[in-house]
Galactokinase
Amino acid sequence: MDESVPNFASLADIYCDTSTAGGIPLDLSTRWNSLLSLFRETYGCAPDFVARSPGRVNIIGEHIDYSLYDVLPMAVTADVLVAVNVLSSPLVKIANLDAERFPSQEFHIPVEGDIEIDASKHEWTNYFKAGLKGALQFLRRKCEGDWNPAGMEIVIDGIVPAGGGMSSSAALVCASALSVMVANSHDVSKRDLLDLAVVSERAVGVFSGGMDQAASIFSKRDYLLDCAFFPSFHAEHVPVPRSNPEITVLVAQSFVAADKHVTAPKNYNLRVVECTFAALILAKLHQVLLKPDSSPLGFSLRNAQEEIMRKQNRLDQAPEEQLMAMISIAEEKLQKKDGYTREDLADILGTSVKNLEEEHMSRFPVQADKFQLRSRALHVFSEARRVFDFKKILSDVQNAHGGLGEQELRLLGNLMNATQKSCSEVYDCSCPELDQICAIARQAGTYGSRLTGAGWGGCTVHLLPQSNVEKVTKALKEEYYSKHFSNMTEEKLKQALVISKPSSGSAVVTGAAMEFHHSI
Ligand code: NG1
């Protein structure tokens, strides 16, 4: 767990793709060359290093990381690159390969004091600044005495679709934080990078769970990442057993932009607050005390489960039985099916509405008259159970040295379909377009189809036999893309439908790799 972020000299160590030239995917080498050329044009020298962090697709476990339940994502090939030349004075100059959408900026790093980020102004550089802020706070704590932050000349290129459920923001924050650590000559462990990237992302105005940053940092090529958050973070690489028929993961964009930073008060942040209240109310009704935990507001449903199970002497029960018990408890105790007002919550918790708002709703605004505790808790407990069942199918097959057959694949698919149903009907984080894409894809031959990431737009993920890829993509093109978007180009369709393989996580790239690509 204390492993350092790897340093690679060859891009072939990072990317896995079959369409390669000399082991390197062709369009990726073109992209690296564009980055390095722009760097030279802008700053008159080659970068000292490139920090990279990928996006991710979550296979199962949606909206439960901030309740500290296990999730199962994997990193994708699409990533963010931050090319850096280190300066001795604390000046930061940032350019982006897509200069039209992301204009250049310059600012000074305060020698003392914090980096200011105005979360109400939606600027792309906020994400870099968030990474910088987290890294500087970390470095100031670590480096005692006379320490001055290094300046940086930077060119950034990100190809993780924004607002697309593939975690472009976490990829940018992780790559930025990593670049600052390396520019300040700090050998950074994956664990430290995770801690500071999660805190950094919360500075941009979202009560982020830890899944995206964990997947971006810890992932390993060809493996899924089993992330556990309770009682503390732990990640394991899960092999995907061979299968007959051969399977593929397809990611399909809805092109409904889901900007969770803009909609957070009614969507993402509100869900975090609702889950926190559900934890506090369940604990209160069972007269158990919760110690603060690492969830965004300090009290998670997983923590409430632990304490309630302890009180009922059920801690030695299997995790799936405990989760079934929590489902019954939520059904019995969280009775208000149409939601809880602030007064209801204050009343049960024995506090005032003012205190309630100050303690749990003051860091970021949330907009709601009623808080849906029952449905949110039921989604969380049932989704945590689905993750458990999904992992068990994989590990049983792996332990028996067998392969996934039709029966196991159908079971995995059913779990993904059940997640979609719960996201749509219980957690209320889907949208008609996501529901429609999943229905079309299933009809055309996937085992399982569901939204991935925060939802309310963005991406869907599908598990399907390799042999059905053509049928499913054709159905999606005809029945979704061409119906919703009259002028969809081939280029845009290529971005919309991507076969994803588990990729490697954050890395620093130096020396030979960059020169090699520069000379292609
Ligand atoms: P997206 O919006 O797809 O990056 C968000 C959260 C995750 C997790 C998922 C829902 C951030 C950075 N990411 O993912 O932690 O809660 O929603 O499962 O906030």
Notes: Residues 7-240+502-514 form a domain with the Ribosomal Protein S5; domain 2 fold (CATH 3.30.230.10). The first strand starts at residue 7 and ends at 8. The chain has 17 helices and 15 strands.
